[in-house]
Amino acid sequence: MEDEQKKEHKQTIWMLDPPTDRPVRVYADGIYDLFHFGHARSLEQAKKSFPNTYLLVGCCNDEVTHSLKGKTVMTDQERYESLRHCKWVDEVIPDAPWVMNQEFIDKHRIDYVAHDSLPYADASGAANDVYEFVKSIGRFKETKRTEGISTSDIIMRIVKDYNNYVMRNLDRGYSRRDLGVSYVKEKRLRVNMSLKKFQEKVKKQQEKVEEKISTVAKSAGMNHNLWVENADRLVAGFLEMFEEGCHKMGTAIRDRIPLQLIKGNSGELAYDDYNDDDYHDDDYHDDDYHDDDEYYYDYSAEEEEYSDGVDCEPSSQ
């Protein structure tokens, strides 16, 4: 239905030939509340409609706009000033009419009126389409709307995230009275925002922990692969070191036993000058050495014997 409506309007729109001896005077009008890039693009199209264009932009005042369209965020003076700072605009016409007539066109010597081609209902009741008269006299120049951006969209975003913007302004020094917020509402918002910040902080910490776990897991996987690839070599090296250590420990124990036995039998503190002829097997049959586990040492066989029946063969040197 909308496509058919577009085709119908395109078929009925016709244009007079532009003047060639002077700049073409193109007029664009609107409310331009919360001036955004969608507005700027439409004015750019109007400015570039012809090689030599003088762009006039009309803007309705607050009284007309509020009565026919609704309340604006910016005042009319703010909207006028926004337009003056747009580089495509050559002249701003304040207090522009809602619906143009021949008198207004003649007064400002307008050659064409630039706007998108969709019909805009005339809230004043003067016509079904605000631009119906301009189209009928061949002075309408079509432009394209920028999809995805409009003043209504911007206001909707603010309303949707109302609490966030209230807290934003409270943090910037505005009072709750400036924002029209009650005492209870302000406290509730502050508590909710504190909880939200805490949740965000916890989430960031969780992400850091997960990242560290992932790093450790990857490292563990690499170490596991390294162990599998070098298992035989590592085990063989460990056994070799273990065997060598056991041999050294056994030798040291075997060498220290005679010294400990001599020390216990004679009561002397040092035995630097002893030899095998200084003592005999009979010296070790003293009652002091006859405990539950009797101990004997055979020098010829170099074996330690225990009366409990357990034999241990010393490591060969």
How would you portray this structure in words?
With 317 residues, this protein is an alpha/beta fold. Among the domains are: 125 residues, Rossmann fold, CATH 3.40.50; 56 residues, no CATH class. 49% of the residues lie in helices and 11% in strands. The strands form 2 sheets. A 5-stranded parallel sheet has the order 3-2-1-4-5. Strands 6-7-8 form a 3-stranded antiparallel sheet, with no helix packed on it. The C terminus is likely disordered.
Features:
11 helices; EC 2.7.7.15; 49% helix; alpha/beta; five-stranded parallel sheet; 11% strand; phospholipid biosynthesis; Rossmann fold; 317 residues; phospholipid metabolism
Helical content stands at 40-55%
Level-1 CATH class name of the domain at 24-148: Alpha Beta
Reported by name, the CATH topology of the domain at 24-148 is Rossmann fold
Number of helices: 11
Q: Can you give the mean pLDDT?
A: 79
User: Uncertain segments of ≥5 residues (pLDDT<50)?
Assistant: 268-317
The total count of strands amounts to 8
| CA distance, first residue to last residue | 106 Å
Structural class: alpha/beta
Q: How much of the sequence is in beta strands?
A: 5-15%
CATH superfamily of the domain at 24-148: HUPs
- Biggest pleated sheet: 5 strands, parallel
Order of helices and strands: HEHEHHEHEHEHHHHHEEE
EC number: 2.7.7.15
Protein name: choline-phosphate cytidylyltransferase
Pfam family, one: CTP_transf_like
Enzyme class: transferase
